[in-house]
Automatic annotation (TrEMBL):
Protein's organism: Bos taurus (Bovine)
Gene: SCRN2
InterPro entries: Peptidase_C69
Domain of life assignment: Eukaryota
Family label: Belongs to the peptidase C69 family. Secernin subfamily.
The protein, known as: Secernin-2
Length: 393
C-alpha cells in the first residue's frame, strides 16, 4: 500500500451548525478527511485512564509529558500515525484537523503533528475553551481555534484549508500582535485581521481549489439553515460536484465523521464514523460513549512494532499493508459497484439500509422515544461494524 510522505499536500473540509441553524437543539459537527488515496484510516477507541507522575507519551515522532488523567476518546486516524484527523472525547468535545498555509515558516526537525495535538487535547480537555486545534465543537456551542487564538461560532460555519478567523477574536495569545509587528506583517494600526495578516500573499495553486470548496460548502450550509441534521451533514460530505467529497488523482476522501452534540447534557452525544473511503459509497455508523464501548477489531489496522516504516530511520523507506478487515471488504464492494451493475446496486442499497437503521435508532434515542440499556448504547458501533462487514462477505 502507498505510504504518506511529509511532502504530500493535504486538504480537508470541516462544517458546524449551531442552533437555531440545526433542526434540533444540538451542535452538529462534520468533517471529511482528504488524504493520499491509498492511505488507510482506522477508527480507534481509547478508554479513559490514569497515569503515574513522570509518565511519558510517545506521539508520532516525539515524546511528551503525560497528564495524570486522560479522557476516553474515539478517533479517526491515518493508521501510520499516533494522532488523528478527527475525533471526540467522552465530554462531547469534537475536533477536526485542517492543513493551512501561512507566512509562518515550517520549523526544522521533528515535532508534534497537528494531528498529534488533536489527540492530546481530546485526552486532556473537557472544555472547548482550552482547545489547541483548528476546528472544534462542544455541546455548549462551537469554536474555531487557529493557533494561537479563538473565535466563537454562531449559525453555520465551514473551513477548507484556509485561515477563517478575521477580526472577530474571542481570545488570543498576548504575543500574537507583537509577533506580527516584529515580522513586518502588521503595522500596529487599525483593525487586526488575523487571516489577512498571517495568510500568504502569494498562495499555492491548491488554495484556489480550497476556496472553491469553501464557497460551495458555505452555500450548502446556508441552503439548509434551520433544518440541519446529521443526515443533511452526511449529504454535504457526499457532494462530489463541489469537490467536498474528493476523488482527484492521487487524493480522495479517506474517511468521514458527523457528530450530534445535544445541548441537553442528559442526552448522549452521537458520533457517526465511516472508517472507509468515499462517503458517497460508505456507511456512517453511530458510536456512543458508555458502558460496553470497546474497540471493534474490524476497523483496527495491523501494527508492525519496531519494523514500522514510521519507526525505522530513515523513515518511510518501505511500504506495509495497513488495510483493516472492514477496509478490505469495502474495497471489494467498491470494485463490484464499478464492474457489476446489478450486484453493485444491491450492495449500495444494503449500505443505505444499514445507515438508515442507525439514523432511525439515534433519532428515536434523541427524541426519547426509546431508552436502550447503557450496555446496548456502548456496543452500538461494534454492532453496526459487524453488520457492514457481513454485508460485504
Amino acid at each position: 500500500m502507498a505510504s504518506w510522505s511529509p511532502d504530500t499536500p493535504c486538504s480537508c473540509d470541516c462544517f458546524v451548525s449551531v442552533p437555531p441553524a440545526s433542526a434540533l437543539p444540538a451542535v452538529i459537527f462534520a468533517k471529511n478527511s482528504d488524504r493520499p488515496r491509498d492511505e488507510v484510516q482506522e477508527v480507534v477507541f481509547v478508554p479513559a485512564g490514569t497515569h503515574a507522575p513522570g509518565s511519558r507519551l510517545q506521539c508520532t515522532y516525539i515524546e511528551v509529558e503525560q497528564v495524570s488523567k486522560t479522557h476516553a476518546v474515539i478517533l479517526s486516524r491515518p493508521s501510520w500515525l499516533w494522532g488523528a484527523e478527527m475525533g471526540a472525547n467522552e465530554h462531547g468535545v469534537c475536533i477536526g484537523n485542517e492543513a493551512v498555509w501561512t507566512k509562518e515558516p515550517v520549523g526544522e526537525g521533528e515535532a508534534l503533528l497537528g494531528m498529534d495535538l488533536l489527540r492530546v487535547v481530546l485526552f486532556s480537555s473537557p472544555l472547548c475553551s482550552q482547545h489547541l486545534a483548528e476546528c472544534l465543537a462542544q455541546d455548549r456551542g462551537s469554536t474555531i481555534y487557529e493557533r494561537p487564538l479563538i473565535s466563537s461560532v454562531e449559525g453555520v460555519h465551514n473551513i477548507s484549508n484556509q485561515l477563517s478567523i478575521g477580526s472577530d477574536i474571542s481570545a488570543e495569545h498576548p504575543e500574537l500582535r507583537p509577533h506580527a509587528q516584529v515580522q513586518g506583517w502588521w503595522d500596529g494600526q487599525g483593525t487586526f485581521d488575523f487571516a489577512q495578516v498571517f495568510s500568504l500573499s502569494q498562495q499555492p495553486v491548491r488554495m484556489e481549489a480550497a476556496k472553491a470548496r469553501f464557497r460551495a460548502g458555505q452555500e450548502l450550509l446556508q441552503q439548509q439553515q434551520g433544518g440541519i441534521t446529521a443526515e443533511v451533514m452526511m449529504g454535504i460530505l457526499r457532494d462530489k460536484e463541489s469537490g467536498i467529497c474528493m476523488d482527484s488523482g492521487g487524493f480522495r476522501t479517506t474517511a468521514s465523521m458527523v457528530s450530534v452534540l445535544p445541548r441537553d447534557t442528559t442526552q448522549p452525544c452521537v458520533h457517526f464514523l465511516t472508517a472507509t473511503p468515499d462517503p458517497s459509497r460508505s456507511v456512517f455508523k453511530p458510536f456512543i460513549f458508555g458502558v460496553g464501548a470497546a474497540q471493534p477489531p474490524q476497523v483496527l489496522s495491523p501494527t508492525f512494532g519496531a519494523q514500522d516504516p514510521v519507526r525505522t530511520l530513515p523513515r518511510f523507506q518501505t511500504q506495509v499493508d495497513r488495510r483493516h478487515p472492514l477496509y478490505r471488504g469495502h474495497q471489494v464492494a467498491l470494485g463490484l459497484m464499478e464492474s457489476e451493475q446489478a450486484r453493485g446496486q444491491q450492495l449500495r442499497q444494503k449500505q443505505r439500509d444499514l445507515e438508515q437503521e442507525g439514523l432511525v435508532a439515534v433519532r428515536r434515542l434523541l427524541t426519547r422515544e426509546c431508552a436502550p440499556p447503557a450496555q446496548e448504547l456502548g456496543g452500538l458501533f461494534q454492532a453496526f461494524v459487524e453488520k457492514e462487514t457481513q454485508a460485504y462477505s
